[in-house]
Amino acid sequence: MTTIKTKVGIIGGGPSGLLLSQLLDLKGIDSVVLERKSREYVLSRIRAGVLEQGFTDLMREAGVGERMDREGEIHDGVVISDNGVEHRIDLKGLTGGDTVMVYGQTEVTRDLYDAREARGGKVIHDADNVQPHDLTTDAPYLTYEKDGETHRVDCDFIVGADGFHGVSRKSIPADQIREYEKVYPFGWLGILSETKPVNDELIYARSDRGFALCSLRSQVLSRYYVQVPLDDKVEDWSDERFWDELKARLPEDVAARLETGPSIEKSIAPLRSFVCEPMRYGNLFLAGDAAHIVPPTGAKGLNSAASDIYYLYHAMIAYYDEGDASGLDSYSETALRRVWKAQRFSWWMTSMLHQFPYHPEFEQKMQETELDYFLGSEAARITLAENYVGLPF
Ligand code: FAD
Ligand code: DHB
Q: Residue whose CA is closest, atom 29 of ligand 1?
């Protein structure tokens, strides 16, 4: 068995794990990232597209903001349409200057991989059967298998950044954590197409036929979603059927100018709210999707991961530079306070904009009134805007 020694052993080479290892490296703190899949596989996953300002600032601090600043699009507003009527939320005006950046998770991850490679960072792909050990001691370690051999990583801390289905959270004894979960009775069917986006800004569309979202990755790459029943399969949805359904949920003028084309990716994602408390067990710290999941409405998944990394990074710097463990001790509480606010916003946006099967008439009326109130009240629009651009870290 070969053994590597490092300060921080990170499970998961998604955006959370890579961003943390890059930030720590710039402060001289060594880490090793163990990723189960290949780099190509990780980069083939089409996920989030909207970055909060706090996230983009962290990318710049990590020295990986250059391409993002060149190729990403700053968005000053978003559109919410309610059965064909468009309402613009002026994010910048309502928040006193805050905006969001449209730059895909794939690109974020690619930039982070390139930066780790350029600095000689240790990112080990195709690491099978990663297992954390001795979590409640001062000498935790990881084992993994690669090329038919077992390897060991000795470290001070382990960070579980291995997503919802990873091994980290599952390594915590069940009586030491509490899990909160809500599963929604629908999913999102998403497609990527090499077409000009239908609108300069994102459109979140509520309609009697169900929710739809018009998003984008660039001026030549569109990302669209429609709400679908949970048991629908991708095979049920030809491109033609997708475009027809999307158009039927959008305002008429938007539908009329929608450019259609073949999809280059098509997938269905279930919608779930999930939080694990606390986000620490001994010397294992959970971050990102390993600890919490939101339904995608409101674009908070990746951004919540980034705020965990911000807190963890600062806590680790204080520990290594000054021997101050207080940030590590309060990490879970601090991170969860913001996590729950992102949960609330995502749950609320989801509840307000989707059609729910078996919704009693009264609930339906409340949903319509909620949206009517929010679109009509300046105070309410400010609330929506400050959450959408992201609460401060
Ligand atoms: P992940 O990106 O999941 O990264 C975890 C990494 O750990 C993965 O690379 C995985 O291969 C690796 N891993 C897992 N298990 C192990 C193991 N045992 N050993 C080693 N490595 C392991 N958010 C939005 O804001 N908007 C969206 O549109 C959106 N769409 C999404 C669609 C899907 C299908 C999913 C699953 C998520 C989506 N999200 C979206 C959420 C967003 O992508 C996540 O919040 C974000 O990826 C979290 O980053 P992470 O690094 O914490 O986790
Ligand atoms: C995207 C996804 C979201 O969930 C969202 O709220 C905004 C944009 C996207 O994939 O582009």
A: 48
